[in-house]
Design goal:
This protein has 135 residues and is of the alpha+beta class. It contains three helices and three strands; from the N terminus they run H-H-H-E-E-E. Helices cover 49% and strands 23% of the residues. A hairpin with a 2-residue loop joins strand 1 and strand 2. It is elongated, with a radius of gyration of 25 Å.
Length: 135
């Protein structure tokens, strides 16, 4: 009896092409997610640095609203430098008896490959609190 000879599958077929496309799409989605998450972490770092600057001159900045506004504008400039270019972004520095609160709200955009669809926006709010007990 002769052995049965089966057809060997081709190296490139519809399944392998679909898997490659699926892997590429997953890789791009992961890149977009990590890009937005990294930007959020960078924004938190800027808020921490601003909090550190505030803590170094807290008695002066607690009393002088103009200097606090200048510090906030500097914080906003640093946020623009790390890539937060939302024109409607809001930043704030609030001082109360509990401590100082630093924050930013902006819209992060997830882009589709080759811009086949409009980007998806997500509002991101990042806050840092400097407790009055650590002053």
């Amino acid at each position: 009896m002769l052995p049965v000879k089966y057809k060997k599958p081709r190296a490139i077929n519809a399944v392998s092409i679909a898997l490659v496309l699926l892997l590429l799409a997953a890789g791009y989605a992961a890149y977009e997610f990590l890009r937005v998450d990294f930007q959020r972490r960078q924004a938190y770092r800027v808020l921490e640095e601003t909090g550190s600057n505030f803590a170094g001159r807290r008695t002066f900045l607690t009393d002088d609203r103009r200097e606090r506004e200048a510090l906030r504008e500097g914080m906003e400039q640093h946020l623009r430098e790390i890539g937060i270019d939302d024109p409607q972004a809001e930043t704030w520095i609030e001082v109360d008896r509990d401590g100082a609160h630093f924050g930013v709200v902006y819209t992060a955009w997830y882009h589709w490959p080759f811009d086949v669809r409009p980007p998806l926006g997500r509002d991101v709010q990042v806050e840092h609190t400097l407790s009055a007990t650590t002053w």
